[in-house]
Design goal:
By secondary structure, the protein is α+β, with helices and mostly antiparallel strands. 26% of the residues lie in helices and 18% in strands. α2 runs antiparallel to α4, α3 packs across α5 and α6 runs antiparallel to α8. The longest helix has 23 residues.
């Protein structure tokens, strides 16, 4: 597999590496004793990867004999960078096995260090989101102490004359290729940046010693000159005595990758103290590994791939440390990606960023999915919740790469990991198509997870999923038509189908005529009109209903298929005043798409609700207040509405009902057993809606004013009370009413006849029905 940006192109880009290597040097730190303690020699290196977080090797935090380093109170030690030493504390140790995983659990020689001052400003390196491959241009960096330690403290005690963090030095001017390992400064001898060149892990307890004969040594290759990096601009230069001039960087080369990690060779030996420092792939402009040490026998360097961070879990939290929550890996990488995106904001006073360096290296390579697309995509993914199951990531990548259910060569945990798995060395167009397809899947999966979840947190997730969908739409415009069709629009799966009857008003006494439409609903007032019958003359209501029913079965089945396996979308029916007795739950629709399909009642197989055709996008405050009160109520109560018993039903509607509704407590639903087609019942429903009630219950065939309530009415109201008392809240009400209808449809069910034609008014002001017959579609879901 080739690198994502092209190895051949990379060889000609070394003149662009200087800016990248400068950023890499400034993000590399030295780990040492706590600020104010005696300096001593630095323990090793690390790299700043997110605000307040340093990645290093776990063994750097232990002394050579295996004991923990000497630290201050509560385990505090120092992190040196940018001419200062700041306090820090160990936070996560990936070398500690999960107690529940057994002795064979995988362990990585990685640790995370947290800076104690959250306001500490510092740069961050870019961590690769893909596994390391065979690379042409890679460099090792080592942190430098800025405490004024004596030169005689050994190679790890060399003090940078400029107080900066710099690269491990390699063979350079005045030394030449023939000098080999002898061209470096002697142990403890200050150089231009105070860095002596020695082997990592040799006698300092920082490296990893492998058994003799673990592998054959790599064939050495002649040293090559590399571009000198610019002086770090953030720290003043102090006077110093230069000894042996050296070039700034040591080039390394990969030999293999096995269970021990990344193996590399170099033309000079790596200095002690480089353990925990970053391994930079300049061709991609990324940190791909953390230097671990060297194989003692054959001098092959070892590094831990940064993808090993995917194993980070809450079980690795150091006792007493402040962690990153239940999913620390997702939280850490989200901080990383959002920090890098924020660095590109307009108006920031900061200088060139890591992204700028990457862009300078990779520009002109003809990539359609370049570093700028990656930067924005990973920022958008970082704002989404972690996938509830890592298998969702594997499945999404498998769908994009057409590899079926076969898992990838490496574990994928987050959406970011899935993004990194898509670099397959393909041609630029195929690569772009893969990323667009993958992000579309992520946007849809994320929106689906929270589409019916109430609250501000779920609303924020829906908004972020929409942002990702809009980004996908923008990037998909350059795809060929067949690919746009195959990938499909980024839209949420339907949650409901809305049938709406629009009355056409003529002279008083004239016929009542209607137009109708069918829309798919995606929540939060997002609708897509999919069928419409609109004419100047309209048709009678019964004819309009028959026209709808001839097409509704197939439309519901298609929406079910789009909603996902086993889904049954809700049927919502919006009717005008005078049609509130519409028994939509008893409508019969085709049970399949067969031409001669049997007809089945719709209300026993899916939730069916009635909506008011007169309430739309302008939400009345009373309507919203009542809805929120019902949604927050731990238990719903029934509000029985009947005519004034003193005057009987013949008195019709009076002011007593208005007062009853206006003074009703939060958490109550009105219920009445009278017909709502006319007379008292119709007036009551109008008052119910005018006083803001979003929900109510009544039978489609309630009794008229010619008779008083009887035993059947008592049975109805008793059943409604029992339904509300055990409902578990407003959100479950449509499904509970469906279950009642299904039970009532069975001939053997006793005492359920009252529920056969039960009508549920359920009018959600947070998901208002669409405007009347404007340009279609009203709002295309994304």
């Amino acid at each position: 597999m080739t690198t994502s940006e092209g190895r051949t192109a990379g060889r000609g880009d070394r003149a662009h590496y200087a800016q990248l290597l400068d950023h890499a040097g400034r993000t590399t730190v030295a780990l040492r004793a706590a600020p104010g303690a005696s300096a001593g020699r630095p323990w090793g290196s690390g790299v700043l990867i997110a605000p307040g977080w340093v990645l290093t090797c776990a063994h750097v935090l232990a002394a050579g004999d295996g004991r923990r380093r000497g630290t201050g109170p509560d385990g505090v030690f120092g992190v040196a960078f940018g001419g200062r030493v700041v306090p820090a504390r160990p936070a996560y140790d990936l070398s500690r096995p999960d107690p529940a995983a057994g002795p064979a659990a995988a362990r990585a020689d990685l640790a995370l260090v947290r800076l104690l001052d959250p306001e500490t400003e510092h740069p961050c390196a870019w961590l690769s989101d893909q596994p390391a491959t065979l690379l042409e241009d890679a460099y090792i960096f080592r942190g430098h102490d800025a405490s004024g330690a004596s030169a005689g403290a050994g190679a790890d005690g060399g003090t940078g004359v400029d107080g900066s963090t710099g690269a491990v030095r390699g063979p350079g001017a005045g030394a030449g290729p023939g000098a080999g390992g002898g061209a470096h400064a002697s142990e403890g001898e200050p150089t231009r940046d105070g860095c002596g060149v020695r082997e990592s892990g040799e006698g300092d307890g920082h490296g990893t010693r492998e058994p003799d004969g673990a592998r054959a040594p790599l064939a050495p290759r002649a040293g090559r000159r590399t571009p000198a990096g610019p002086a770090t601009p953030h720290a003043p230069t102090a006077p110093a005595t230069l000894t042996t001039p050296v070039d700034p960087f040591i080039a390394v080369r990969f030999g293999a990758r096995d269970a021990r990690g990344l193996q590399f060779g170099s033309d000079v030996r790596v200095t002690p103290g480089a353990s925990g420092g970053p391994l930079i792939d300049c061709d991609r402009g990324e940190v791909v590994g953390i230097v671990k040490g060297r194989h003692q026998q054959d001098h092959v360097g070892l590094a831990v791939p940064v993808t090993a961070l995917r194993g980070l879990g809450p079980e690795h939290l150091v006792p007493g440390a402040e962690g990153l929550g239940p999913d620390p890996y997702h939280a850490l990488m989200s901080l990383h990606d959002r920090w890098h995106w924020a660095g590109q904001e307009l108006g920031r006073a900061a200088g060139p960023t890591w992204f700028d360096a990457q862009h300078a290296i990779m520009s002109g390579r003809g990539r359609l999915w370049g570093v700028q697309e990656r930067l924005q995509a990973l920022d958008l993914l970082a704002r989404l919740p972690a996938p509830r199951d890592p298998l969702l990531v594997e499945a999404a990548v498998g769908e994009v790469l057409d590899r079926g259910d076969r898992p990838g060569a490496w574990a994928l945990r987050t959406w970011r990991d899935g993004h990194g798995a898509l670099y397959q060395g393909s041609d630029p167009y195929t690569e772009l198509r893969a990323f667009v397809h993958y992000l579309r899947i992520v946007a849809q999966l994320t929106a689906d997870e929270v589409r019916d979840v109430p609250g501000e947190q779920a609303a924020a997730v829906r908004a972020q999923a929409l942002r990702l969908a809009e980004f996908v739409q923008a990037k998909a415009v350059v795809l060929q038509p067949q690919d746009r069709r195959r990938i499909g629009p980024v839209r949420r799966r339907p949650r409901s189908v809305l049938v709406e009857f629009e009355p056409l008003f003529y002279d008083e006494g004239g016929p009542e005529l209607f137009n109708w439409s069918v829309s798919e609903g995606y929540g939060q007032g997002q609708w897509l009109r999919v069928d419409v019958q609109e004419s100047a003359g309209g048709v009678p209501f019964e004819q309009a209903r028959e026209q709808v029913l001839r097409r509704l079965g197939g439309r519901l089945l298609r929406a079910d298929g789009d909603a996902g396996p086993g889904a049954r979308v809700r049927l919502e029916v919006a009717v005008p005043e005078g049609r509130w007795h519409t028994a939509a739950g008893q409508w019969e629709v085709a049970a399949s798409t067969r031409r001669t399909a049997r007809l089945r009642p719709v209300g026993s197989g899916r939730a069916v609700i009635l909506r008011d055709q007169g309430r739309r996008e302008q939400v009345d405050p009373a309507w919203l207040r009542r809805w929120q009160g019902l949604a927050a109520a731990p238990e719903l109560q029934v509000l029985r509405i009947a005519p004034d018993p003193g005057g009987g039903a013949s008195r019709g509607f009076d002011e007593a009902v208005w007062r009853l509704l206006e003074t009703a407590a939060e958490g109550v639903l009105p219920a009445l057993c009278h017909t709502v087609a006319d007379g008292f019942g119709r007036d009551v429903v109008g008052a119910v809606l005018d006083t803001g009630f979003p929900a109510g219950l009544w039978p489609a065939g309630g009794h008229g004013e010619e008779r008083d309530c009887d035993a059947a009415c008592e049975e109805f109201h008793r059943g409604v009370r029992e339904l509300l008392q055990g409902s578990g809240g407003l959100a479950r009400l449509p499904e509970l009413v469906r279950q009642l209808r299904a039970k009532a449809a069975g001939a053997a069910e006793e005492g359920m006849h009252w529920a056969r034609d039960l009508v549920l008014l359920y009018d959600d002001p947070e998901d208002p029905i669409p405007p009347l017959f404007t340009d279609r579609p009203q709002l295309s879901p994304r």
